[in-house]
Design goal:
Blueprint (H helix, E strand, L loop, with lengths): L8 H13 L7 H31 L4 H26 L1 H16 L5 H39 L25 H46 L1 H5 L13 H55 L5 H33 L1 H6 L10 H17 L15 H27 L1
Helix pairs in contact: 1-5, 1-6, 2-3, 2-6, 3-6, 3-8, 5-6, 5-9, 6-8, 6-9, 8-9, 8-11, 8-12, 9-12
Length: 410
């Protein structure tokens, strides 16, 4: 099965990155084999990189600044490997979410006002994904350019690689150096894609579902105008019972859409709940180590520039992640306000009128429990999570700075 092409830069970027990792729909057995080979390469690449960084951490033990630098790399690698593993276990559900979004969100028949609502949310999604991708790729480029700048004026026996490899080989000599450098840069680029691809899709899914809840709010408020737009200014009290019956049919369609969105959010929660927990647990440590490299570590200007990009990438990543979840939570809860402000008071007390009032009560009760993503069920993710993670990161940073000062004193 193949998805229809969509002219949206956020969707194009996100789908391209997911294809590079090996998670996408295949239209033929040969294409599926290619996806499987790509996924195997991704997993092998990350595991091999973790092994390299772990050996470097072992041989650098005692150098506090170098150990924190390697710890940043290991955390990024481990979270990328963990997300790949979890999404592989939920691969069918993940692809089903993408297919549903393509059929019901990207290509739906919207009214002019609904198109403006959808376009505004797409614009927010595009900003987030482009900024996050820019800073992440800038960090990747900085990792690759740093040794090139550092090797200017050095002898052949004194050249450095992007990452240390403790092997019994003359890696600074040609042609070992060139081969190893190219392999490390290729692995680095692929890991960078793996690090951001699933988070881009999570942000996009959250914001697109939030857009659907906003559109649903508009439909609940003005469902009576969709049937008779030219007579919308007239009171519904003067309508015939046949018209009221048609209004009730439109209202039930809105209810069905609400139920479908709730079911979609539940599936989204089932797929990403463990990934969300890992993100929350990792962000505090990662921001702490990156902040130490930027502010306190005695490193070169090129490495500091690399970690400045990485710091902005992580801050954007965290805000994108928590803001999209907060939008989903906020917009799903606002459905109660929208349905209550709909003109249900003007309906007569016939069978459909009483049924519609009963449905309004049920929708208000259901919307009081908003749809949200949780950290594996422990707590919901919102903008408050952003402040909590930043506060924890600052606490860890204070401890790390104190430890660094004690180390320098001794």
């Amino acid at each position: 099965m193949r998805l229809m092409p969509v002219k949206d830069i956020s969707i194009v970027i996100s789908s391209f990155f997911v294809k590079c990792v090996g998670f996408w729909l295949a239209s033929s057995p040969s294409e599926q084999r290619l996806r499987n080979i790509t996924l195997i390469y991704t997993v092998f690449n990350i595991i091999f990189s973790v092994w390299i960084q772990t050996r470097d951490f072992y041989y650098s033990w005692g150098d506090f600044g170098t150990c924190t630098y390697i710890a940043c790399n290991i955390l990024c690698l481990n979270i990328a490997l963990f997300k790949t593993f979890i999404l592989f276990l939920h691969k069918e559900e993940f692809l089903a979410l993408i297919v549903y979004m393509q059929k019901n969100f990207w290509t739906s028949d919207y009214s002019p006002h609904e198109k403006r609502i959808y376009a505004s949310w797409k614009r927010i999604c595009t900003y987030f994904i482009c900024i996050f991708t820019f800073f992440t790729e800038a960090s990747i480029v900085s990792y690759a350019v740093r040794p090139i700048v550092a090797n200017i004026g050095r002898n052949e026996s004194d050249r450095i690689l992007p990452f240390n490899m403790w092997l019994d080989l003359p890696l600074s000599m040609s042609p070992y150096f060139e081969i190893t450098f190219i392999l490390q840069v290729l692995a680095l680029c692929h890991i960078g894609v793996c690090y951001i691809c699933f988070d881009n899709f999570l942000c996009m899914m959250n914001l697109h579902v939030a857009a659907q809840f906003r559109i649903l709010q508009h439909r609940f408020k003005y469902f009576h105008k969709s049937q008779y737009p030219r007579k919308s200014e007239r009171s519904m009290k003067g309508k015939s019972y046949s018209c009221i019956d048609e209004y009730y049919v439109l209202f039930k369609k809105c209810i069905q859409q609400h139920q479908a969105l709730i079911a979609y959010c539940r599936k989204l929660e089932d797929v990403f709940r463990t990934v969300v927990l890992a993100q929350v647990l990792t962000f505090s440590l990662l921001l702490c180590f990156v902040g130490y490299q930027v502010l306190l570590a005695d490193i070169s200007a090129t490495r500091r520039f690399t970690f400045v990009n990485l710091l902005f990438s992580n801050l954007c990543h965290l805000f994108m992640f928590t803001y999209s979840c907060d939008c989903l939570r906020r917009e799903s809860s606002q459905v109660a306000v929208a349905v209550y402000t709909s003109p249900w008071l003007d309906l007569p007390m016939n069978k459909n009128g009483r049924g519609l009032r009963q449905d309004v009560r049920f929708i208000v009760l259901r919307s009081s429990r908003p749809c949200t993503l949780t950290a594996n069920g422990f707590f919901p993710i919102s903008l408050e999570t952003y402040t909590s993670i930043m506060s924890s990161a600052m606490s860890y940073f204070t401890i790390l700075r104190q430890n660094s000062m004690n180390t320098e004193t001794t």
